[in-house]
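Note to self: keep these together.
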Amino acid sequence: MKKVLIVDDEKSFLLSLQDGFRHHDNKFTVLTAENGREAVELLKKTAVDLLITDLEMPEMDGFELLAWVSRKLPQLPVSVMTAFGTPEIETRLAEFKTLQYLEKPLDLETFEKAILTGLNSTTKSYIHGITPATFLQLIHLEKKSCTLKVSYKGETGYLYLSQGDLVDAECGDEKGEAAAYRIICWENAEIEMDSLGQRHEGPISSSLESILLNAFRAEDEREQEDEQKTNVLDQEFVLPELGNLVPPDTEESPRAPAMLSEATLDSLVELLNANKIISEFGFFDQNSSLVRQNGGNCSLHVFDPAIYLHLIGPLDETLDIGSCRWISFFTARRIPFLLFRLSGYSLLVKLQQGARAQVAATELSESFDSLITTGSKNTLDISMPQQNGVKK
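Structure:
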């Protein structure tokens, strides 16, 4: 049975909702709390599928409750009840897809629809992992004064608000709007709210709407620049001179590996296309020509696997690691890549940012082994990857 927690300081309103939704007992159960503190205690003991909260409440208000949820239950879907005051504010808020709101006063039918939609949908219109931008919008609406402490990947920033306006920000050595732009774009951040130590003025005079737009525009520009750098792989990974790193000829020329069949290649392409953690991939033949790739656009055609494969030979001998079958590396944006030796082909796999190469390689090895003939001498043999290194 799914559970919905509704938080509001009007007890009669909560009782009316419980009575009104009794005919949905086979679909969901309504739990209630009269302030954020009661809600937190309930959430500590009970698993809830949807949280709907008012903002203005005694003891612990909705903002403090949202901050607690962002730290402790970041995946809990949240909807906010509030009164906007003007159609202009409502229209502007509707443009922000991270915020699902219910405008007071509420009729039972509207509330019922919102609950059923929230329970049966993974739409981004419900808050999952409350962002600093979402918090700023809510605080601006309610004209609240407070300080937000925002933590993200070891960094900490502070946003100072007075009567709903952002007046100052700090993050490391940055202050003012520059710090605000940086903090606003953090996703999956931990947020703490403090009503003490407020600042009533500061160097920021721009409107919140302008700051949000500028922050996201700057973030988009950074992402585009990074994407351009990532796409031009030859500038990041191709070494200009091989010199004496190319292994010398041996008396006995190595036997050319048996190539994969067309049917096996097709099966591997289908497997890789279905893997959600893979962003792009490409199969290169012994002439470094791209012969298979992911569906849609592929930026890997500029990559020359021969550069890496020429380096593997000397490493095999120098480090006495035996026959190396794959290598892993990262771009400047920490996007992981895996390059496999695969029965006469080189397979380059670009993973999604943040993906764990070790886990990905383990899953791929199991899938590959089921597709490639186990009796072949060139059957894929993948070891557990190491970040930024080469391994047997």
